[in-house]
Every structure is written in structure tokens, then in C-alpha cells.
Fold each of these.
Amino acid sequence: MDAYSKFLAQKSIVYRGNGIEIDPASIHPFLKPFQSDLTLWALRKGRAAIFADTGLGKTYMECEWAKHVSQHTGLPVLILAPLGVARQTVRLAHNIDLDVRYIRDQSEVTSGVNITNYEMLDHFDPAAFAGVVLDESSILKNLAGKTRQKLTAMFADTPYRLCGTATPAPNDDAEIGQHAEFLGIMSHVEMQATFFVHREPKDAVTGQKKKGARQQWNLRRHAEEKFYRWMASWGMFVRKPSDLGHSDEGYNLPPLNIQPVYVRSDYTPDDQLFFSGLKGIGDRSKVRQATVSVRVPAVAELVNASDEQWIVWCGLNAEANDVASQIPGAVNVQGSDSIDKKTDTIEAFQDGSVRVLVTKPSIAGFGLNFQNAHNMAFVGLSDSWEDYYQCIRREYRFGQQHPVNVYIVLADIEDQIYANIMRKEEQARTMAAKLIDHVQKYEVAELHSDSDINGWTYQTGVATGANWRYMLGDSVERLAELQDASIDLSVFSPPFQSLYTYSPTERDLGNSRNVDQFNEHFGYIIDHLFRVTRPGRICAVHVADVPAMMVRDGYIGLKDFSGDVIKLFQERGWIFDARIPIDKNQQAQSIRTHSKALTMSQMQRDRSWLRPALPDYILKFRKPGDNQQPVVGGMTGDEWIDLANPTWPNEKDRCAEWGAWATWYGIQESDTLQGWMAARGNDDERHICPLQLGTIERCIRLWTNPGELVLDPFGGIASTGDQAIRLGRCFVGVELKPEYWQVGVRNLKAAESDMTTVDLFSWAAQEAEMIEL
């Protein structure tokens, strides 16, 4: 049990970290209590992300973290920051008595904390640094794919890594996945496969797949709490100090005044008699370019009517050039400027010597603190909510002392763009609140080093009848209660490697991140099955091969699950005795699974993809040794001939009850114990797939005598127990999920009630008569 407990702890999808424990008193007193807690936590983790809203002091936390990593290792730490933020960080670091050196290449690196711009990445040797900080790390998703991959690859061996950015868009699994991948917690692909399920976008009316629609990744229902717990184990999401149980005093935002300004436009597309609306990115781009001349004067009028500082956000060079020329004293920072010129101009604006800064979101929209100003204007909008949000947050942040005024100047025909941004704004606000609510309890637990908090309560229990015992709990732990060599037959269907299908707990065999983890967990159960089974007796395992999917596995095909199970049992001493296919209906399977390998349309397109329907299998394993109690009676000679025949006897027997040994026919997929829907939880991704009663019946009749003991370690709603009782056998089972166990208990009681008039000895007499016949 100690080994199993350790295995469950390892199986938990929580990043436990391997960082630095320091004396809390060594944190610089300038840091607020919540900042000190976050810094200590990030040091303890070693690799972490601080997703803190603008104005919450990420710069101080990053610098303090980097200082302690450098002191602990005796090696330098590198901070990577967007343009202009590096020098800002150098200035702010003086508040915590830290000298951060701004450098441009490896030759300038000194001991302690160094900082440079992302643009200088290629000039450094990552092996020289003990730690790296990505400031404004949301840039990860804005970087070109190759650059982002290079950044992740360069620092893959760096022992200490920290990301700092504002709270990411809650529905953006890409940003969260890219952070986890950079930190070495989990790859983006693995994160999707572990916590998300791929769903094809479908039309609400027709139900058909939308052509050209972007694929959707939705959080698995039972994975929701696990996902948030996992995120909180390496990333802290903070909108305000009270999210972590601290006071919000001093962290109150001023009013934010957003005012759309529409200017009249006579724009008409060249190929239309009149404007009929924006129909895509192409239309938006054409309209924006064509209406520069009417939007720019409106912005210039707003700015020129004021003597205060302004930021003017542009998306086109034409907008920036024109508006700068119409505003006296405005300075345009553009992409073609040198790094020094960009940085000098930005600092001049922060110092107040430049009244009006004209630039693009891609240049100054991330990380910079422009609290010195409280007015801004957008010369048009793109559909990027993040650009819009980040630009506003340069001025509207904790510490701002004035109401922030935001003017969005648009042509009258661009109202759809503004409406789209406002829709995204409301959606992001709602989802961000939901995200914080979900992770809050886990974050507080993390800050107090409580890694055992879980969103699922493990329960145990037992119910008994005259000839049955049904245990609630973990199969590994409950099977340990059974006596050695006490079981005559085990019949069960294990989970088929489906994450979070039925429950969120690590105790669920199906909740395994990969095949190796599944096999290790299943091994504990197989070992117990071997111990409790009588020598020479049987374990019958119901399996099916598992389809491999492109979105999860990188290819389309099959995984030899049945072969893996055979190997697992053989490695633990079992003798593999038979693989019995169970017939499946091709059309029904095609409709249920939507597999392209079974469809008529695929047959017409390319038959190379086609394959038969996948059968289920009963894998028969025998424990070595002599069977001390021969299994006899209960079956006629004709039945055995059909069971043992390796071919289909003849066409007239097509609907026969038993079918052939090579394949068991006549078992209907609907031949299951009724009432399983009552056991299904609201969060279950699938129904519980109860094993067909006909399959169970054949196993019990073939391999046991009346009165013998049948085991099911994955009992579900007790289908195996129902058949065991009705066939005059005894039953013991285990089920992990309370909802299934409760329904199973009711089913066992019902079966027992139905059989109260049947005496086990009469069963034996009847079957003895059949032998004589």
C-alpha cells in the first residue's frame, strides 16, 4: 500500500516543483505581503508563472525572484523583456536596492541579474544562466512559431524559469499551453490531450460540421477541477490582492471612460453600388485603409483641444504619419526606428518631455507603464481584443490617480468592429471571473504549501446480501481485503485509457496520462487478481482495441489495447488461454463513433482508409496450477460444439443463441442491465458502457460451478453480480464511484429478491441432470 500511495501521488497531475526554500524575512520589505507570498511560492516551485494584472508589481516580484536565484546558485540570471520595458525595469529595481544590468550580448553579462530585449535573444548563450525570466510572457503567443519554439528550446535545460504577464484570456488554451511548455511543465499538445476534448464545430440548425470552421477544444467535464488545480500548481492568476486573501487597500482603480467616436464616411467598394457591410478581414482592411483621411482629423481635433499627455494608437503607417503631422509636438515611434530611438522616445514620454506619443500596439502595447498619462485615442480598431485590452492597461492600472479617458475613432461603417470588441470584452470579463473563482482555493492552498487539496472526495463503504458483497472504494485497496486463493472466476471490463470519462480522481484507472502510467496502475490490480484467484481458475477480461486519433495521437489508426493487456497479464504470471471476438454491427458502430473507416462516403472517396467494424474481445487468462474443483455440468454437448467450433457452423444458425468459439455471435449491444442512466453523473463524458449480460452469462456458465465465487473489480452498476446471482453463484465486487455503486447495490438486491425461491442445491441438481442427459 505504501508503494501504491506513492504511485497515486506521482500520478496526480500537479507540478510539485524543485526550487529554492528561503527565509521569508529575506524578501525585500518594499514588496507588499501578497507580492512577498507570490515571490516565495515562485522560488519554491523553481519554474512558475505569475499571471498578475497590470499594476500589481510583477517587475518587483520578477527582480526579487531573479536576485535570490542568482544568490543561491552563484550564477547570473537573464530577464527578457519587450522593447522599452528593460530600461523601465532597471529604474524600478532601484526601489528594492537591486542593480539590474541592461545588456545587449553575452560579452556584457555580469554576475547577478541581467536584462535585455527579446530582439537580442540570439546574442546570448542560455547555458551561462541559472535562471531566466520572461517579462510580459504573453508575447509567447504573439511571437512567430519558429521564434517561440527557439525560445522554448534555448532554455529547456535552464533549471529556474519564471514567466510574468497579466491574466491571460481564460478561453485561450494556446497561451496557457505555451506557458506550460516553456516552463517544462507539460507540452501544449499533452495539455490538450489530458484536459480537453476535441469537438467538431457544428451548425446549430443542421447539426452538420461547419465547413472551414476552426476546431474547438473544450475542457473535459470531469477534468475541470483537475485542470484548475494543475494550473494553480505552477501559475498564479491574480486580479487583485484579495484573490489571495490579502487586503485590497491601495489597489482601487479609477473610473474608465470609453467613448466611441464615429465619423461619416462615403466609402463604397469598387465592385458594389453601395456598402453592404463588413464580410471578413479583407473587407475590414480595405475600409480601414480607405477611411484614414476622415478618422485622423477627428483624432487630431480631440488631442489638440487638450494640453495634457496623450497616447495615440495606430494600426497603419499611414494613420501614424498623418496623425503625427496634424498634432503639434507629437512624436511617432515606428517599427523602422532604431532600438535606442524607440527607447529614448518612450522614456521621454514617461518623463513628460513628450506630450503626445503616436505608436502601434505591437511596439508599446505590452509591459510599459504609462500612468503619467490618462488620455488615449485609437485611430481605428482591429478585431484583436488583446491588443485593445493591453493598450488601455498601459494607463489604466493600479496606481493610476486619474480617470482614464479612451476615445475610439471609427468610420460609421466600422460599427461591427467596435461591437465585436465589446462582445469579446464582456466574454473575457465573465470568463476571467469564473477562472479566478475556480483557481482561488487552489492558489491559497499552494501559497500555504498544501498540495493535498482535491476537488473529489474518496469514499468507502460496503453492502452485503445472502450471496454477495459489494465494496465502495479503490480496487487496489479493497482487493487487498480478499483472502488468497478465494476467487473462482473474475469477469470485468477495465477502462480503455479514456481520461476523465467517469471521475476526476487519480484512483480511477482510466485517468492515466499515457500508456505506461495506465499499465503501472493496472499492474497493481492484476497482481491482486493473481493472488486471490484459485490455482487453475480463470480471469475473463472484456476489452476492445482503441482508435488512435490525429488530434490526440498524431495519426489515425488503432492501438493494440488487447495485446497490451495480454502482455501485462503474462508479465505477472498469468497464462494466456484464449482471445474470443464478440460480433459488432458495422452500421451501428459507424453511427456511434463517426469513424471515417466505416462510412459509405469514405468508400466512395478512398477505400484505403476502410476497415471492418472493431469487435470486442474476451481475453481468457488462467492462473498456473491444478484446478482442485473441476467445472462440470450446466452445458449440453450441442452448446459446447457450437462454442468450440472455430468457424460459423452454417447459415441457419446465424441467429443461434451461442454462435461459434472463434466469434461469439448473437450478443446484442443493448443487452445490458437496465437503470445505468440513473448512475450517470452530469459531468460524465460518456455513459458507463455496462457489459452485455449475454457476455457475462457465457463466461460464468463456461468457467464456474454453481455456488462458486465470481469477482468484478470494476463493478459499475453490478452487471456481473446480477448475472452471478441469477445463475446461482456468489459475487464480490468493487466500484470506485459512489453513484455507480449505489445503483449496483439496488441491482444486486433486486436480483437476490428475484432468486429467493431458487436454492443453490436445486441448481446443482438441475445441472447434474443435464450431465446425465
Amino acid sequence: MRINLEWLREYVTVEQPAPELAERLTLTSLESVPLLEQSEFFSAVTIGLVQEVTPHPNADKLAVCEVEAGESGTRQIICGAPNVAAGQKVPVILPGTTLPDGTEISSVKLRGVQSDGMIPSERELGLSDSHAGIMVLREEAEIGQSFWHYLEKYWQGLDVEITPNRPDGMSHLGVAREFAALFDTPLRKPNITVAEKNESVEKQATLRIHEPEKCPRYAARVITNVRIGPSPKWMQERLAAIGLRPINNVVDASNYVLMETGHPLHTFDLDRLADHTIEVRSAKAGEQFTTLDGKKRELDDRILLICDAEKPVAIAGIMGGENSEVTDDTVNLLIESAYFDPTTIRRGSKYLGLSTEASKRFERGADPEGVLYALNRITALIQELAGGEVSAGVLDVYPEPIQPPEISIRTERTRQILGVEVSQEEIARVLQGIECEILRRETDTITVRVPTFRPDLEREIDLIEEVLRFHGMETIPAPKQFRYPAQAVAARDRSSEEKLTRLWQGFGFNRTVSNSLVNERYCYPEATGKTPVQLTNPLSEDMAFMRTTLLPALLEGVRKNLHRRESDVRLFEFGRIFTHNPAAETGADEFLHFAAVATGNTFPRTWITEQKPIDFYDFKGYIEAMLEVMGVRDYSVQRTDTTLFTPGIVIRVNGENAGVGGTHNPDLLEQFGLKEVVFGLEINMDVCDRYIPREIQYMPPSDYPAVERDLSFVVTGDLEAAELTRTLRETGGTLLTDVTLYDIYTGDPIPEEKKSLTYTLKFLSKERTLTEKEVDTFIEEILQAAARRHDAYLREQ
């Protein structure tokens, strides 16, 4: 957003130079830099007076100009601009000066006539893209003065970086309000006087809103018998100084009020509106419309339209149409000032790929209470510049007025957050400076009604931030010592995350970081059991929801790598997922998750090894290794198909569901254009954390030898090895230190629908050498439990 300082100073008294103002504004969170910097080039350009213009004797399109250039005397300059005329004050570039594009100006003969300098256009000066003619200066310009002094007075400004939450800063009045609060000086809004005639506006036009949820407010005025022509020099120069091309007095007035108030407006040729009617409705699927830029656009119901009685005439909040634009022949105007739903405008802008000055403001949140002020301001300005008669009254459809919130701010809480002493008087001064209405003041609390032009102020912490901005972030002292209470859980989380990162990197996986904002189709509420959190004002449809799972981003990473011919892809991520919870303070719960995906081979082919495709059991092994490294003891990995994984597994920790994994469902992979087999898992780290031992004790190794026994059990074919393993551990006693499954066998002589599971069991005592008889007792208990629970028996051979 470009701010012209001459323009700004109409609304607030700030005499400081541009660099100082930029620094002060930056410190209050609106990052700014001066638009122009003094240079040798600008200082070398002189302000001159065109005394006489005569035709060039040897060229029809050239003129010979006598230009008074101060101390440099009168110079003869050949000029080809169509707008050059005697009496004009202009910038003059003398021989020996180099233009910003590298061209050096010298004394030359043009068609036999000597030219001793140049009268440049704005583009040749590097000020704008305008090249239709020379730059003509205001009457106030001083002949012979350095051009830089003129620029500093009339063209200097600030380039302000506006964050998405601060639409109020996208105007001269908005930035002036910041300076007024910062310097504790009054804000001077323009006085508006509209001279109405007797005929009522209701007789001139009709207004209907069919979807008030998308257009909560729409207002209009009618002006008749206007005269279209050029804008005055001061307006053209102000618009040019902020990068806008002057067009005519009506269009320029609309742009001027937009940049002054921050509220977008639109002017229609009233006589081109069928039945002088305005209707606001959604577009129909397949409906087409040609916008002002000459492009025919196909629409759908995501687009909000402004229509007359027969046809669309504008895309609401984005761009008008060719069929209703103001031309040189326009006589009667209908002026629109509205408030549109930000989400509707953002969705339409993204769908069309069309971003305008209007859409940038509407999609961030315009001011619903600023509608009439902006409408009356442009009406008065057009009446001043183009004449005309204003019909009495305003068409204003506002069925459900938007109520600004009431927020309380506590003085003591503000001091705690900021870490400095702040008085209630200072808090009140800051809030009044940003035009909050103080409703009540109590011992420790101030309750205010926030202005509708500040949609970012929703909670107490937002008001505390405002106090911080104007108190001065740079004034908060930095402590010599930084103290922070030790958080055992946080430390453990970091330690666990670091260990797991090293583990998965050792498996050959790469860590990724993805956006927590996703498209709704990647939330999978049925599969995850989590209701997604929808953003109120998303930047785009692809960033409209908070993620409920990490897997879609990882699958997108697989897709991109495969398209780049990287066939072996292994990725993992730690990140937070979110689920809707109206009872929570923020309206959502969040959990730390871990997810991983893999496809291709476990390791590449070399001269000594063959490629081995990654399989289901590789991934199951990764999961078990991960849980062991975390210190989780009571866990199980059970075969269960899910919406996301077929075949799949469910990971339970201490009987609580902690995650899922397995082979990704082909239907899911098809959404990403993947035909390869992809394995994955996702684990809730918060669940695992609840069952990690808080204290770790060192256990010295035993001085006595271990006793090992191999047992081969015959079980039903559908029994999961994990279930039998759990039984062996539970019944083996404290001396059973290790249970290892090392063989699974089917076939002769094992009966059909049966399989053989062979385990190595290790028994160890720290106090003595175990006898065979003691181990036999443990084995007998194990065999009885296996037979009782799983109908398992020992294999004979």
C-alpha cells in the first residue's frame, strides 16, 4: 500500500520526514519504507518554465520549446510530446545527466535543429509507467529549484506492508489514524456536504439483495447530468504518486475515495442498467460475463454478481463489467457502496484468478459502518469535479446490522503479559486513540466496544497487543537473566522427538514439514473420527481447514517425488493435528502426531545386494522399534483393516488406541494419482507419552548365564503372532526376559488352516544360576496358558 505524505497530512499533523515516519510506523507493526530516496539524478533535474512552443521546421510531430531553467538560463529543447504547451512548469534534464535507464542526455541536432536537454515523462524519470506525454508540474513549483524538492513535497510517501489482519491500514485515513494515536494528535476526517435535489432516489433506481448472508449491506446514490472530463492536476498527481493511472473525473474520484477511506466503490452508467435496477445474487453454473479488462469469464455459484433487471453488470467486490462502465458519453450515474462477506469475495477471487484493489480489501474485511461515509464522500467529490444533480436520499439495504463485539481488558493482566508497569489511563488513551468506545471503567477493568473497521480485535489479548504497539515494543527492557520454569514433559517431548528423528533417519527416511492448513477433502473425518476445524476467513479453498491427519501431505510428497523419477521414497513428519471442540477455549483441541510413508525398495541394488521392495512387515518392524525407543512397554500391534489402510494394523498402548498403519487403501492413493503400493502409519504421540515411564532406573547386567528354550506352537491360521507373544510374556514370570519369534511355517506336516510359530524364550536371574527344573516349571505354565487361551499345542517335529 502506497501512502502519499502530502495527502496524508490533510488528515493528521505529522511534520517528520519520510524515513522517520517509516521507522515509527514500522515499530507499531505496519512495516514501512520511504517511497523515494534522494539521488544525484533527482537533484540534477531542474524545474523549468516552457516559455514558447513552435512547430519543428522539418518534423510534423516535433516541437521547438524555449524553456527557462533557472541559473542554467533559457534552453532550446526539441520535444515530441503531444501535451507540451507554453506556460507549463516542467522538469528539465540538462546535457550530461544520465537517466535511470542508463541513457545519457547530450546536446544534439534533431532534424537539423539544436536540442539542449530533455523534457521527460514520468516513466523516463522512473516515477511511474505513464509515457503518454511530458510530466507537467503544479503552478506552485519554483523555477530553477531542484526537482528533488518538488518530489519531496508532492510525491514523497511510504510503502506500507499491510498484514492480512489489518484491512484498516489499507488507506490514507487508516494510516493517519495510526499516526494520530502514535503522536496523540487529532485525526481530521474530510467534512462532507452533499447538495441534494428534491426528487427522491427511490424514483430513480430499485435495489434488491437476494442473498444477504453474502451481501449484508448494499447502498447506492444517483447523480444525474454529470460532465465526464479530466481530473484536476492535484488529483491526477496524487493518484500517480501511489501508482494509479488517472482516467477521468468520475473514475478518478472512485479511486481517490478508495485510497482515502479504504472502502471500495463502483460507479455504473445508470442509463445502461435495465429498468434502473440493481439485484445482488449468486451466479449460475456456466454463466458467462465480460469484465472491464475485456476477458470473458465462466462463472459458478461461488461468484456473487451485481445484476440489473436483465443481466450481470459486475462481479461483486472484484470487478465491474464492460456493459455498464462509465464512458465519455455517460450522463447519469449510480454509485455503489457495499459490504460483502469476506469469504465469498476471497473464494470468488481465487476461483477467477483475479485480484483487484477492491477484492484485496473486501476479502480482508471492509467496514460495514463505513459504507455510507464512503458513499457520501464520493458523491460530494463527483459533484465538485463533474457537476450534476444528486437525487435526495440513499438506497440502503441493511437487513441485519453487524454488531461490533464488546471486550474487557484487565490492567493487571496487561502488566503481566507486557512485563512493564502500564496505567489504566494509558490503556484507555491507547484504546480511544484507535477509536474504541469505552463503555465501562472499573477498578481493574475497562470494557470497550471495538470499531467495525478493526475485525482483528476479538479478544482481550488483541487489546493488550494494541497497548503494546503504542506503548512501544522497543521500550520494554530486556532482562539481564532469562528464567523459565523447567517443564519435564516439554523436555521429554523434545528428547523423544530427537531420538525418533535419528531412528527414522537411520531407517532411511527424510523428515518433512507441511502446512497445517488443508483442503476439506484431505480431512477424512470418517476415517479419523475427528471433526475438522474450518477457518472463518481462509486465504484460499486449499487452506480452509485445519488438518486432522498428517498423511495427505506425506502422500503429496510421495507423488511429487515419483513424478521426478525418485522411485524409493521414505518420508516422516512430526506435527500437530486439530479437531473441533466447541467446549475448548479456542474451539479446538490439538494433538502431537507422528506419521511416516514409504514406497519402493528398502535399499538400492548394489554389486553385492539385490533390491528388496519394502513390505508390510518392514513397516511393522519400524513401528515396534519406534515404540521400544520411546520406552513404551505395554503395547500391541494388531491386524485390523481401516478406511485408510488395507491390510492395516491398529497400535494400542496400555489398551488405548494410539495409531494406525499398514498398506494405504488404493482408493485413497487414487486421489493423489498414485498406483504404487505405499505403506504408512500415524501415531498420536500424546497417547504414547502418557505411558512412558517418568523415571528410568539403571539395572546392572546379571553375573549369571541365561537359559534359552525354543518352542514351536501349532495354532489356527488366523491367530496373530502378537496375541500369542503377549500370552508368553504374561505367564512366563519375571525371569522371562526376552521372547523372540523367529519362524512362521505352514505346510506338511502342519494341518490345513494351521500354522507353526517358533519362539526363542530367554530366562535369566540376577541372583543365581537357574536350574533346568526351574525353567521346566515356567515352560509348563506357558504351555497351559497357550493351550487355554489359543488352543495351541507343541509341534512334534
